[in-house]
Write a structure and sequence with these properties.
Layout lengths: L1 H5 L20 H10 L1 H28 L3 H6 L1
Helix pairs in contact: 2-3
Protein name: Factor of DNA methylation 1-5/IDN2 domain-containing protein
Keywords: Coiled coil
Pfam family, one: XH
Length: 75
């Protein structure tokens, strides 16, 4: 194992899909948290993350099946 660690050709890493995250410094989210509190802020943040994730799924399915996003959301 020591030989592998010292071997500059050994690179046990792979590229992974980059992940979008909610920008905690977003002015609207800061305002929301200030006005409504942490619980509401976290609920909105979770909803935004889920909407973003599922919009990507709908777009991928639409591309695979040759439908528009609007048609994909209707089914």
């Amino acid at each position: 194992m020591a030989e592998q660690v010292n071997d500059s050709n050994w690179h046990p890493f792979k590229l992974d899909k980059a992940k979008e995250v909610v920008d905690e410094e977003d002015d609207q989210l800061k305002k929301l948290r200030g006005e409504w509190g942490k619980e509401v802020h976290n609920a909105v943040k979770t909803a935004l993350e889920e909407m973003n994730e599922y919009n990507e799924v709908v777009a991928t399915l639409s591309q695979n099946f040759g439908t528009s996003k609007k048609e994909g959301k209707q089914h």
